[in-house]
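Why run this: before we spend reagent on co-expression, it is cheaper to look at a predicted model of the complex and decide which construct boundaries make sense. The entries below are exactly what would go into the expression plan.
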Amino acid sequence: DVVMTQTPLSLSVTPGQPASISCKSSQSLLHRDGKTCLYWYLQKPGQSPQLLIYGVSSRFSGVPDRFSGSGSGTDFTLTISRVEAEDVGVYYCMQGIHLPRTFGPGTKVDIK
Amino acid sequence: EVQLLESGGGLVQPGGSLRLSCAASGFTFSSYEMNWVRQAPDKGLEWLSYISSSGTTTYYADSVKGRFTISRDNAKNSLYLQMTSLRAEDTALYYCAREIPRLDAFDVWGHGTMVTVSS
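The model came back. Tokens follow.
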């Protein structure tokens, strides 16, 4: 199985400051058709996960532009340019190219 | 409004069975691939199973292969997960999730249904 690792596992951020989460996969997530199957989800407290980013860097509908994704191959990053109070929760990366699909362990983000 | 609503969870003894349902509304269910994902208490997300839009193709995580069966009834806009030989480690909140065609991302999630396996 493809192992997804995330660092850090927890992050405390001052509102208005940037935050970055790293996600690494044990195998390349580049599909032969050229797309890279890496996604980011946010699970806010008490809620179901919600899609933030697909295809490494495409923001899903309604996702604020302070969220951005980057990376390639096996190394990926989610960046929040200016953290807001509503961004608290657990962030998961997920790979969709290999079966079984696997999630990272999650990064818990809270506000200082 | 696009919505997924899971049901069927509950308390079951080890070795028992349970059938989860996921009712879809607000979109053309038969056009979408679907998945089940679970989350054990205070743990992360675990993908369990996938089913194609027609229902002809299915995939499973090794942890549930041979014990769980995913299915769908497009006429009833419903997704199912038949769970047998349940174990304590199957205790979790079970989510159904819609998959965006050709993007493979899960864009709509239900609120989940809790399954507790305990004697």
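Chain A is about 0% helix and 50% strand. Chain A touches chain B through 25 residues (CB under 8 Å). Bring this page to Monday's planning discussion.
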